[in-house]
Amino acid sequence: MDFLEQLMETYHIPAKFLDILCDFYESYIEEGQASGMPKMVLEDTFKRYISLVQDQFRSPYSFEIYHRRVKAPFDYYSFGNEFIRPIVDKKGSSILYGYNLDTIAQQLRDKENVVFFANHQSEIDPQIISLLLEESHPDIAEEMVFVAGERVIKDPLAIPLSYGRDLLCVYSKRHMENPPEEKAEKQQHNRKTMNMMNSLLAQGG
User: Fold this and answer.
1) Do residues 53 and 80 touch, judged by C-beta distance below 8 A?
2) Confidence class of residue 57 from pLDDT cuts 50, 70 and 90?
3) Which of 86, 65, 181 is nearest to 131 (CA)?
4) What average pLDDT does the segment 25-30 reach?
């Protein structure tokens, strides 16, 4: 807790985020140490994450309708994977029907399209997918385009991880009328996103 409070003061993170970050930090350190990672290494990695969160308070990033992963001058894709790695139990995880990935890889090379329907669990799903596929099919994971809702692209705690992924950004139906005066703008945004999706599907692969 003292470590996190020092970070909050150093990087000027608003106090309202303290409880969220405190729970996240404690879980991160506990799970990371359980996986064999030294606490000092985990704290250094978490410090880097906090510094990226601070960047969003200094200068909030506005996502385009189709956001391409940022790998330079800072590699957000690799950072996201390495940040999440200590809390993913790869040895205890399994990929069912993994032989389908070879078929998918060939379909993508042939400029066909592949759509995954996912039981979405958390904002770190993309990083978990990358870690589980890094030995067998790293290109599929890195080049996957995710449909991203409002929280993924506006929450300053999520943006450092979102920044490193390819995203089609949309507003969900349940947030369309909140606030009511932005409904038309959000609907227009979603129409543009659908047009972009159609364009990508037409290109194939």
Assistant:
1) no
2) confident
3) 86
4) 94
| In 35-182, alpha helices (H) | 39-58, 76-84, 99-109, 125-133, 138-143, 150-154, 159-162
What is d(CA 121, CA 119) in angstroms, rounded to the nearest whole number? 6
- Assessment of whether the complete model's pTM goes beyond 0.70: yes
Q: Which amino acid is at 122?
A: S
pLDDT at 19: 82
Other Cβ atoms less than 10 A from the Cβ of 5: the count is 12
Reading the block at residue 68, the tokens are 């391409």
- The Cα 62–Cα 149 span in angstroms is 13
Q: Counting runs of H as helices and runs of E as strands, what totals does the chain give?
A: 10, 3
Average pLDDT of the chain to the nearest whole number: 92
Instruction: Please give the span between the terminal C-alpha atoms of the chain, in angstroms, as a whole number.
Output: 46
pLDDT at 1 over 70: no
Task: Find all residues with CB under 8 Å of 13, minimum gap 6, and list them.
Answer: 7, 21, 50, 53, 54, 57
